[in-house]
Amino acid sequence: MAPAPLQPGFDFQQAGKDVLTIERQGLEQLDQYINEDFTLACESIYGCQGKVVVMGMGKSGHIGKKMAATFASTGTPAFFVHPAEASHGDLGMVSAADIVIAISNSGESSEILALIPVLKRLRVKLICMTSRPDSAMGRAADIHLCVKVPEEACPLGLAPTTSTTATLVMGDALAVALLKARGFTAEDFALSHPGGALGRKLLLTVDDIMHSGDEIPRVSRDASLRDALLEITRKNLGMTVICDDLMKIEGIFTDGDLRRVFDMGVDIQHASIASVMTSGGIRVRPNTLAVDALNLMQNRNITVLLVADGDRLIGVVHMHDMLRAGVV
User: Fold this and answer.
1) pLDDT tens readout for residues 244-301
2) Contacts of 185 (CB under 8 A, 6+ apart)
3) How many Å is the Cα radius of gyration of the chain?
4) Where does a domain end: 123, 155, 184?
5) Please, how many CA atoms are within 13 Å of residue 6, restricted to the half-sphere of its CB?
6) What are phi and psi of 303, to 5 degrees?
7) Helix residue spans in the chain (DSSP H)
């Protein structure tokens, strides 16, 4: 079918703003439904010994998938089951220890209604999210969460728009309320997001990214300054560690120290590294979180850290290693 001719002067921006206005007003109405039923739903999910199983057909199903994903990533184990597939075997995924959240704007989804007798037989607690408490799903629910909105943003009143937004927001409200109740932390969040930037920041430890073995630039305290500079050049980390054969740390010498040596007029050809090194060196343990090591580097205005077990050198980590690992 060929599209109808575009109306002269049609204002796409205003049409978009009208949608925002209608949906914003719908969400303002949602506040009244964060009530005792909401508290009961949160308490039930908090005490659930199994998983939260979210169901919904059509657009409600799309919202349900996002809701389950949000629950799962914020400390509430959850997954989505398609109601039609549930009628053909997938209901076996649901156990008596679980809680089902069933979503339908009308509350009359035939696919979900067909499952309710079995869920009741299994004694599974049922939370229904609909716009009509008196609907078939509303009456069957152990807990009903109302997501009624004044109107859809669709001018025909047909395409789910404001109603799906309200349902999504109600799901977020549940997930975040539970997150706060559990004392869920950023570290907990990272455990379910190991592939993301936050996971890299919070889960990587220094020994995951440090240089070790032959990659460590090191010389003995008997080495000349010239030998130390050659080692710095070979290992390309802008520094060398001064340590004995047992890897006991005695000091460190960096590119910055070399500039200091020049200012002092030290004879580079004949000076020993022991006479110009900085004793000790700032160090961290190998199980230190990379993000903590990065913070230490930034606070001390340095680009390299020694990784050590007490005075025994284990490795070296450079700011560039942080960059490559995505920690910065």
Assistant:
1) 999 999 999 998 888 888 888 777 778 899 999 999 899 999 999 888 999 999 999 9
2) none
3) 31
4) 184
5) 5
6) -115, 0
7) 12-30, 36-46, 58-73, 83-86, 110-113, 116-121, 136-140, 162-182, 186-191, 197-203, 206-209, 225-235, 255-264, 290-300, 319-325
**How many structural domains comprise the chain?**
2
In a domain, 146, yes or no: yes
Q: What is the CATH number of the domain that holds 266?
A: 3.10.580.10
> Is 130's pLDDT higher than 80?
yes
Domain range for 211: 203-325
The answer to whether 86 and 132 have CB atoms below 8 angstroms apart is no
In a domain, 268, yes or no: yes
Does the residue 39 lie in any domain?
A: yes
* Distance from C-alpha of 232 to C-alpha of 219, rounded to nearest angstrom: 10
One-character DSSP codes across 50-88:
S-EEEEE-HHHHHHHHHHHHHHHHTT--EEE--HHHHTT
Across the chain, which distance is largest between two alpha carbons, in Å?
A: 93
- Reduce the DSSP state of residue 205 to 3 states and report it: strand
41: CB partners within 8 A, 6+ apart: 127, 143, 145, 174
Average pLDDT over residues 186-208: 74
SS3 content of the chain, % helix, strand, coil (to 5): 45, 20, 35
14 vs 5, 107, 157, 162, 235, CA distance in Å? 19, 33, 18, 17, 62
For residues 281 and 317, the answer to whether their CB atoms sit within 8 Å is no
Return the C-alpha torsion angle 149, 155, 160, 162, nearest 10: -40
User: How many angstroms separate the CA atoms of 253 and 165, rounded?
Assistant: 60
Which of the four pLDDT bands, split at 50, 70 and 90, describes residue 242?
very high
Residue 174: pLDDT over 70: yes
Q: pLDDT digits over 1-40, tens only? A: 677 888 898 999 999 999 999 999 999 999 999 999 999 9
Backbone φ and ψ of 22, nearest 5°: -65, -45
